[in-house]
Amino acid sequence: AQKITQTQPGMFVQEKEAVTLDCTYDTSDQSYGLFWYKQPSSGEMIFLIYQGSYDEQNATEGRYSLNFQKARKSANLVISASQLGDSAMYFCAMREANQAGTALIFGKGTTLSVSS
Amino acid sequence: KAGVTQTPRYLIKTRGQQVTLSCSPISGHRSVSWYQQTPGQGLQFLFEYFSETQRNKGNFPGRFSGRQFSNSRSEMNVSTLELGDSALYLCASGGELGENTEAFFGQGTRLTVV
């Protein structure tokens, strides 16, 4: 069974609009971490934001925020005021408690296209 | 602080050959993981090393192997290359074990097997 589900293969948004990229996860662990990464066409994987399962506040990093709903096992990424440079593939990932530091499980990704 | 460095960036190899990829983590990081990314399979976890010990391994054949040195630098080796090994290989670097740590990636090595 998929542990990270990203149901939106592609999303289209206009500049300056906000966009939400969906991510649901499946784990029986109480302690886990959730990540979002951006991958432009160049291939590098850029870390955006991290949320620990015990963090009470939703994580925010500049224009990025993570809408963490633990009971629903949901960790959606919200990008405010989209920019053309936000066009890329976005991956949601999870680290489970029984895994060590950098062993992550990734979703299949969502391609975001921002137009002017 | 320097980021994660992967070398080489691009590589073309022939079927049957072997290849070694290198990853230098962020200074102070002791966890290094390797991932294979292909259009069909997405991002798949290969293995993770922490303090020179392999802690986790993904579901890949034994042709894929790795190691980590005392300075935390890691190498990944693929022997008897197959066409299907063509992929972007990404390395991730992280700090101490546990949930409250981030994982940073290098720019990747794009391997083409012909």
Write the layout of secondary structure elements.
The complex is a heterodimer of chains A (116) and B (114).
Chain A lengths: L3 E2 L4 E5 L4 E3 L2 E2 L6 E8 L6 E7 L7 E2 L2 E6 L4 E6 L8 E9 L8 E2 L3 E6 L1
Parallel strand pairs in A: 2-12
Antiparallel strand pairs in A: 1-4, 3-9, 5-6, 5-10, 7-8, 8-9, 10-11, 10-12
Chain B lengths: L4 E3 L2 E4 L5 E6 L6 E8 L3 E9 L2 E5 L6 E5 L5 E5 L8 E8 L8 E3 L3 E5 L1
Which labels suit this protein?
heterodimer; A: 116 residues; mainly beta; B: 114 residues; 7-stranded mixed beta sheet; 4-stranded antiparallel beta sheet; 0% helix; globular
Description:
The complex is a heterodimer of chains A (116) and B (114). Chain A has 116 residues and is mainly β. Chain A is built from no helices and twelve strands. Chain A is 0% helix and 50% strand. The mean pLDDT of chain A is 92. In chain B, strands 2, 4, 5, 6, 9, 10 and 11 form a seven-stranded mixed sheet that branches. Chain B has a four-stranded antiparallel sheet with strand order 1-3-8-7, with no helix packed on it. Chain B is globular and about 40 Å long. With 114 residues, chain B is mainly beta. Chain B has strands at residues 5-7, 10-13, 19-24, 31-38, 42-50, 53-57, 64-68, 74-78, 87-94, 103-105, 109-113.
